[in-house]
Amino acid sequence: MSSPATVRPGREAGRVGLLGGSFNPAHAGHLHISRVALKRLGLDAVWWLVSPQNPLKPTAGMAPLAERMASARAAARHPRIHVTDIERSLNSRYTADTLKRLRRRFPHVEFVWLMGADNMTQIPRWRRWAEIFDTVPVAVIARPAYCWNAMHGKAASRFRHARIPDRAAKTLANRAAPAWTYVTTRLHPASATEIRRGRQTPFGGPKAY
Predict the structure, then answer these.
(1) CA gap 154, 133 in Å, rounded
(2) CA atoms of 39 and 195, how far apart (whole Å)
(3) CATH number, residue 123
């Protein structure tokens, strides 16, 4: 499957997971979520959408986009994980807009929005967050310390009727939105915040002192 930078609209097809974020920096946790999604959801590819600027995060401490793109490319390390700043060319600041514009640009792609359980607890703070669930299927990947809150929060409650069991995860991409699943897996401890604080390394776990 081609990367977003080289495909022509209307020619791309398949199942593609979308992992958005600042990637400030990219780390082993991003790679873990992507590998799990490729296998458990039966995806053809995962696109890392490196955000020009996350509206919920301060600009202070945010590395330049080019630096974060380089970090993501170095971290991806998988032939079916593609790194892109396509949100810049889409001129979209919010995920709800990004997803709608991607669906228009790639009408033959079956997109799935990927996120860690930490974002499932935070997503009600996002602009027009319910539109995300109404636009594409969503896969929530287990993360340490967030599992219970993710499954009992506002988003999970609102879309309880649309949840499918983990065992049916490989059918998610083919389902009409809203549809989502919670993917249980080995929990990965990597955190961009802890990396920036110097308490972890991107691929080596807790920092040795």
Answers:
(1) 13
(2) 27
(3) 3.40.50.620
Interval 15-26 mean pLDDT: 93
Determine contact, residues 134/127, Cβ cutoff 8 Å: no
Which tokens belong to 13? 């097809």
- 58 CB burial (10 A radius; 0-12, 13-18, 19+): exposed
**Predicted local confidence at residue 117, as pLDDT:** 87
Residue 153 placed within a domain: yes
Give a yes or no: residue 45 inside a domain. Answer: yes
Instruction: Report the run of H or E that residue 29 belongs to, with start and end.
Output: helix 28-40
DSSP labels, 150-178: HHHSHHHHHTGGGB--GGGGGGGGGSPSS
pLDDT at 57: 66
E-strand stretches of the chain: 14-21, 45-50, 81-84, 109-116, 138-141, 180-183, 200-201, 205-206
pTM: 0.82
Contact of 50 with 83, CB cutoff 8 Å: yes
Omega prior to 124 cis, within 30 of 0: no
**Residue 51, domain extent:** 14-202
